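Appendix B, example 12.
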Amino acid sequence: MPKRPNILIFMTDHQRGDTVLSEHPARTPNVERLAREGVTFSETFCPSPHCCPARATFFSGLYPSRHGVWNNICNGQRLSRGLKPGVKLFSDYLAPADYRCVFAGKWHVSIDEGPADHGWEERMASAAGEAHHGTTWERWQQLAESADDLTATRGEGEILRPGWGVYRLYGTQPREKMGHDNRMIETAESALSELLAGDRPWCLFAGAIGPHDPYFVPQEYLDLYDIEDVPLPPSYADEMSDKPRVVQRMRRQLWDQLSEREVREGIRHFWAYCTYLDDLFGRLLDRLDRSGQRDNTLVLYTSDHGDYCGDHGLFAKGIPCYRGAYHVPAVVRWPARIPTPGRRVDAPVSLADFAPTFLDAAGLTADQRFTGQSLVPFLDGSVPASWRDAVFTQCNGVELYYSQRSVATRHWKYVFNGFDEDELYDLQDDPHEIHNRAGDPGLTEVRRNLMRQLWRFARDEDDSMVNGYITVGLAPWGPAEAFR
């Protein structure tokens, strides 16, 4: 029986999938090295543009409707405290099979359970337990008493928000101020050295919190980029007149405060942040490669979700269902199992695919049905006959609640916005999702066929969005379409 592989996972937070592709201006030499020696899954997507549901999907292989995590679990707007009872993570299978699983970094899956409850040795776990992500009423009172945000003059990269406080999108700070990720990488390096010295198969998770907004990076990384080389995204010129009103409001109220130069500076800082993270990843990769265990270690570089990063004039992530927030990096190296490295796979991949992939690689069988499928055949150089031809999303909002579902094929993308008008994009003619064609009567059958696919996925994943009450059943075609 072949020796079971070790597994090294490096997960960033908020990183766009295009930033690790060789043609992108962001400098990520260590991930590019991983790509030359492995396989790049260039069309990988999260199920929801939010840390908690995306991470729960990564660890469980399930979509939110089945794992139960819909938004940020660490504040009062949470829709759940964590996973549904009985949901298993891939570590729940690896640990009993004699894998030594070590966790270092961001968790953000449950406040009632931590990594240790799912087979991990916790060396560092942030966004766990009773961590609170938000602002207290005491802080709001202090802000009101100071009135700083009411008298502020907008500074470089800043968004004025009366009553909320001034938000600054980007800036620089010394390397020693990168607190979480400094601790994470030191913890992960120490754990990796220990694991490499052992005689058991292992799985190490290293989770960063960058390049999450705001984009504050050490100056030396910013100096690698000249702002004159940073273009505005093609969709920046989108007039937004055919977009949902909440998306128009985000741009008008927030991001339109930034000049075009500041938008480019935001993008520049984001790229610099990606380079900083690539350096951290390189430290683990170098240590692994010096150990002699390189060939039989499956290494994955990925992220939980992306960032608009100037697309449509937006930054961060949220309800706008555009590629930048959903497209994530996914580069896998496993020399013992990849006969032809350096390949790029453009089949649609989901974060839900990695849990079954890890179990397949380890020769383990799950006692559950995953939403995702194993990627191991792609590593071997084949294409599974039953592979999906569409990517689906499930979003019930972030801290503002909205019901939204989408389906994207190679040709079309349809977004059902229960709170506003729907969206339809011809991805072949309009890859930047600028022209909403949902109102085109000549495309009625296209919309209906895509809605049918959405309902079939909802049926298979037991999606509770299916509610026929007259004021909430607003999809143009209802769930009976799943059976037609």
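Residues 156 and 225 are 18 Å apart (CA to CA). Residues 6-133+173-238+262-380 form a domain with the Alkaline Phosphatase, subunit A fold (CATH 3.40.720.10).
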